[in-house]
Amino acid sequence: MGRLQLVIDVGDLDEEIDFHSRLFSTQPAKVKEGYANLVIADPSLKRVLFEKPGEGGTLNHLVVDPFDSQRLGGGQSQAGRGVGDQRGRPVISRSIPGR
User: Fold this and answer.
1) Strand, helix or coil at 80?
2) In this model, does residue 60 exceed pLDDT 70?
3) Which of 13, 54, 59, 65 is the most buried (most CB within 10 A)?
């Protein structure tokens, strides 16, 4: 089973960490200056937050992480390019136009 990675820009990182932690009943897996991510088991979701004061509330990008290179023909994205995450797993990533 794959996981959806939803990356959003937020105006206030601390406020959004608190909101998402309560919403999904989980604490962030990683927090750095201007960045946090939460890994949610059910539904299988990784929520990534980028702090952008004054520009929050927008979708940054969306990633479908299938966890299985065979689903994508040995690590090739549907566009035919090899795309992988930090662990070398194949992903399909599409940036939002104009970003």
Assistant:
1) coil
2) yes
3) 13
